[in-house]
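Name: LytTR family DNA-binding domain-containing protein
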Amino acid sequence: MTVYESKKYNKVEIIINCPEVDHQLGRLIDQINQMGITLTGTKDDKIYSLVPEHVYYIESIDNQTFIYEEKEVYRSQMKLYEFEQLVKDTPFTRISKNLIVNTTHIASVRALLNGKFEASLSNDEKVIVNRHYVKTFRKKFLS
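Structure predicted for LytTR family DNA-binding domain-containing protein:
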């Protein structure tokens, strides 16, 4: 890796030269993109700045959106489709009508009989990847 540091640069620019973007490099690019995202959530009438890498998933329940970390849950004013746009080109991917998961926190995946997948997260929670989202999930996580 080569890093050029100089006062003549106004901003950080990352350039990757490669013969092709493989799975490992694609995941690295997703993680770099994730670093530029800011998430906020509320809990106990306080607003918190959340680190995207610590977020396990984002879920919408009864028109309310929740952000889940390993042990904490925050409420957000954003809609799930807004989060989906915000986290595109990151390790996050939509897996159902009401859930976006951070694939970096998936410990294992198993296929279910009905064409769905069950993903076990590193905090021992399980989430279901609905059939409609399996193709994009596979592309993001399994390939």
